[in-house]
Design a protein that fits this description.
- This protein is an all-alpha fold.
- The protein is about 70% helix and about 0% strand.
- The protein has 44 helices and no strands.
- Helix 35 packs parallel to helix 38 (about 750-765).
């Protein structure tokens, strides 16, 4: 044992690790023996007590006393050995530099305390578990937390852990937010055990509830279990009684407590969904559909719901239904599709059936009760998307289905907000597809009635637009949401829409935007019907081309006369964005590459360059709108569909699909690479990847984008704002750096011709108007020139220097400064890293390259002593140089042999010199 302790303290880590494992296992084995002896001692004690009741003296009593004494001495001896190993090995190794050794120590200590509490369950040993909660290694912290979990799970240990809990409980709570997810999850489990034993107060748990919206789902699930146990089920409350026959009341009680929690987040649906998602797995009451519906319909007079509670309960019902059928209610970090096995699919299908059965008779009264509330009715309507509609036919409940469809149609005309309209359209379309037989025909007829009624309302609204502008706007929104899902025959009102648009161009930009959107969607549906039909009549083709021409004329009007942003605030911005996006979508749908060499070649369309330039000018205005201006928008329903990212994506799609000349628009888009934030930057990055994948001439596009960025800088240079000038030049340099960074590693050699083309054409552009445009060398060309090999750089430098042969650069020093910076930077870079070869360099020989030996005599650092091996090579003789040339001309095998002999000679001389130096140093050390 002493040898093991001594070996555990040796410097070699492998010895320490093995000895530590042996010593720790010894204590574990000693505990097993001690527990067996303790059981034997108890048996002997019982036998002795029974024997003493018969007779006080005798050989049997003496034998039992002797055995009891011997057993006790053995236990005492074993405990002494355990203490010796603990003080000699554990106390030193629990803070070893090797985390694996520390983990083994803490795991073993946890086992010792749990299995032998009579010796180890005291603060003398517990403190080591508390100290290692702060260890820098996550594995050690986790081992300590798991060891404490095992201790607190045993109720008998809790009284002895009072002082330890008081000392380290704060650290246990802090570990719930540990940087390591596994440690945090284990710590949350430990906190649950502390709550079970009522060792923590509710005030201590405040920071833990903030973790309900943490990114790692493991932490959220663990906190959800804690919230359910402590706040909803209240398992830790001793006054809680669970009697038989109270399952229904229990669900209502749990739902009531859940509503109290959701009341804190009633204004934020996203946070509410996070809370529901975290607790759903543990709270069975969330799947008690009958209880939730009963509470919503006020069937229990003892439960009164406020308006906020009703909204939260409907939100909970909607989210719980989605979870039950396998949908996500919070955004996932990986966005990967979840696959289910056969058993899981059966569970989801059974849940879908249970939801349908529970909602079947109660769905119509729920919709009627909350019809007027747009938030509630939207959530209720969405539920039908997760029901098995064929059960209405199988269970002979057709009337309930018809009532639901009619109520959804009424909700569509009752509300005019995006979420409510979109939910109603999805629900009716789902009913038309998923229902069976007579019910399917009924749903399809209701959808047709809805479309006809909407067209009639639109006709009336356009006639009475001067009196009721709001009615036109709301019905246009309804038509837009309906056309997003199905084809609506609006041929009868298409010309009325065009006429209304002509009179509303400068009146209400929101109405104009939805007029344009509906025209575009109608043209898109007409195009799809033509493409899908087997035979196309000349009349339908001419009608479609006429509608497209009309739409393009209306859109191009706003290119030439952009919406007055100053007059109507952000509605003008939104209309401009819609014009850009719709134009891009129309050009994309009718791109010539889609219809070339087909019977529909007449449908191919490509805009004129003047129109394309106007389009990009309007796009740039939208890109230059600040985020603060976007945030000031009052109506944010469709803001995601009209922000700068949507405009940039629409423009980039045109370039990626060859709908417009990429040499112009591609260069303009890439010139915005570093100007408008990370989201636009990602879009441009994807566009560049697509262009490179299609083997386009990216060098020309890159150079054009650099020129456009530089021209923007030159235009700003004419102003008085020096900060804008510096910023624009910095953006030009950053753009060049990002574009040149694409050619990294092996891509340098692969795209060497492209890089050289960019550099040569860039140099030519810089000298077109020298010295005014020479800053283009420093701002753009220099980053690409640095990617070229030395031979190409020499060629570039010669070309640049030729252009200044008969030019006096001293006349305008500031103008020619970028030229000198360009030349000096490249010369210095390649002189240091790769060097330049002079003209007339000899042809490279086969085999080993010749070492250049310049007969330069090195300066010795100390007199009488050779400074280094490198200095000896510098002062080599002419004879050695001649021998080297001969060796280089010799076959390679001879060179290898001669080099081995020479290296052997040199190493032998060095070893002799080293021996002499060591002897001299020892002599000098001894004399000192």
């Amino acid at each position: 044992m002493d040898y093991v302790i001594a070996l555990s303290c040796t410097p070699p880590r492998v010895y320490r690790r093995v000895a530590s494992l042996v010593g720790l296992q010894l204590v574990t084995s000693f505990i097993t023996v001690a527990k067996a002896l303790a059981a034997q001692r108890e048996t002997t004690q019982r036998q002795l007590n029974a024997e003493k009741q018969k007779r006080t003296e005798g050989p049997r009593v003496d034998s039992l006393k002797k055995r009891l004494s011997m057993t006790h001495e053995k236990i005492t001896g074993i405990e002494e050995m355990m203490r010796k190993i603990f003080t000699g090995l554990f106390v030193h190794r629990y803070r070893d530099i090797d985390p694996n050794i520390r983990i083994s120590c803490i795991q073993s200590l946890g086992v010792w305390i749990t299995s032998y509490p009579s010796l180890f369950l005291q603060d003398l040993y517990l403190k080591y578990l508390g100290w290692t909660l702060n260890d820098k290694s996550a594995g050690v912290r986790k081992a300590s937390v798991l060891a404490l979990q095992n201790l607190y799970e045993l109720d008998d240990n809790v009284p002895s852990l009072g002082l330890f809990t008081e000392r380290f409980s704060k650290r246990m709570i802090d570990l719930a937010d540990d940087v390591d997810v596994s440690v945090a999850v284990c710590a949350i489990g430990l906190v649950k055990l502390l709550l079970r034993h009522q060792l923590l107060s509710d005030d201590d748990l405040g920071p833990l509830y903030d973790l309900l919206v943490e990114d790692p789902p493991e932490i959220r699930r663990a906190i959800g279990a804690l919230v359910y146990d402590h706040l909803i089920a209240q398992k830790h409350n001793s006054g809680q009684s669970n009697t038989k026959g109270e399952s229904n009341d229990s669900s209502e009680v749990h739902l009531g407590r859940m509503l109290q929690i959701l009341r804190e987040f009633s204004t934020d649906q996203i946070i509410s969904n996070y809370v529901i998602d975290d607790v759903w797995e543990y709270m069975k009451a969330m799947k008690d559909w009958k209880c939730i519906i009963s509470m919503l319909l006020d069937e229990n007079p003892l439960i009164e719901l406020t308006d906020v509670d009703a909204t939260n309960l409907i939100r909970l019902l909607n989210a719980s239904v989605k979870k039950a059928v396998g949908e996500r209610i919070v955004l996932a970090t990986d966005n990967r599709k979840h696959y289910y096995n056969k058993a899981q699919k059966e569970i989801l299908e059974n849940d879908r059936r249970d939801i349908t059965v529970a909602m079947m008779k109660n769905y119509p009264p729920l919709l009627r009760k909350f019809m007027a509330d747009k938030a509630k009715v939207t959530l209720l309507v969405e539920i039908i998307l997760h029901m098995k509609l064929e059960l209405y036919s199988l269970k002979r409940q057709e009337q309930y289905f018809k009532d639901v469809v009619q109520l959804i149609k009424d909700a569509f005309f009752k509300h005019g907000e995006k979420d409510a309209l979109r939910a109603c359209v999805k629900a009716i379309c789902y009913c038309c597809i998923e229902s069976r037989g007579e019910l399917q025909d009924f749903a399809q007829n209701k959808l047709k009635e809805l479309a006809d009624e909407l067209i009639a309302k639109l006709k009336t609204a356009m006639k009475e637009v001067d009196e009721d502008e709001y009615s036109l706007l709301v019905n246009l929104k309804r038509l837009y949401e309906l056309q997003l899902s199905i084809y609506v025959p609006i041929e009868s009102i298409f010309q009325d829409i065009v006429t209304t648009l002509g009179s509303f161009r400068t009146a209400n930009y929101e109405v104009v935007g939805f007029l344009l959107l509906n025209m575009y969607l109608h043209v898109a549906w007409c195009l799809q019907s033509i493409i899908n039909s087997d035979s196309v009549s000349e009349a339908s083709l001419s009608s479609m081309l006429s509608k497209r021409t009309t739409l393009l004329e209306q859109l191009e009007y706003f290119l030439h006369t952009p919406p007055g942003v100053q007059e109507d605030g952000n509605q003008g911005n939104q209309l401009a964005s819609k014009v850009c996006i719709i134009l891009a979508e129309v050009w994309f749908l009718f791109r010539k590459t889609n219809f070339s060499s087909t019977k529909l070649e007449r449908l191919g369309y490509c805009p004129d360059m003047s129109v394309l330039q106007k389009f990009w000018e309007l796009c740039k205005k939208q890109l230059n709108i600040s985020d603060e201006t976007e945030d000031e928008d009052v109506n944010r329903e469709y803001v995601e569909e009209t922000n700068r990212d949507a405009v940039m994506i629409a423009a980039a799609k045109l370039v990626a699909c060859d709908a417009v000349p990429k040499e112009y628009l591609g260069a303009e888009i890439i010139a915005c690479f570093v100007m408008h934030g990370t989201s636009v930057e990602e879009i441009v990055k994807h566009l560049i990847a697509v262009l490179r994948k299609k083997d386009y001439d990216v060098s020309s596009i890159f150079l054009e984008s650099l020129k456009k960025a530089y021209i923007r800088h030159v235009e700003l240079s004419n102003g008085d704002d020096e900060s804008l000038v510096n910023k624009s030049f910095q953006e030009c340099k950053e753009l060049a750096a990002r574009l040149s960074g694409i050619f990294m590693g092996a891509a340098r050699n692969k795209h060497r011709a492209d890089i050289l083309k960019i550099v040569k054409n860039g140099v030519q552009y810089s000298f077109l108007d020298a010295p005014k445009q020479l800053s283009f060398l420093e701002g753009a060309v220099l980053h690409f020139a640095a990617k070229l090999p030395a031979t190409d750089v020499i060629e570039i430098l010669k070309d640049v220097q030729k252009r200044t042969v008969n030019v006096n650069t001293d006349e305008d020093p500031s103008g020619w400064r970028p030229y000198h910076t360009f030349v000096d930077t490249l010369s210095d870079k390649y002189a240091k890293n790769e060097g330049f070869q002079e003209e007339g360099t000899s042809v490279r020989r086969r085999g080993r390259p010749a070492k250049q030996r310049n007969n330069i005599r090195g300066k010795k650092l100390f007199d009488g002593h050779s400074s280094s091996e490198e200095e000896d090579s510098l002062s080599a003789s002419d004879e050695d140089g001649e021998k080297q040339v001969e060796e280089d001309n010799a076959p390679l095998i001879h060179s290898l042999k001669s080099s081995k002999l020479r290296s052997f000679r040199v190493s032998r001389q060095q070893s002799e010199g080293t021996t002499n130096d060591l002897a001299a140093s020892r002599t000098s050390g001894a004399s000192n």
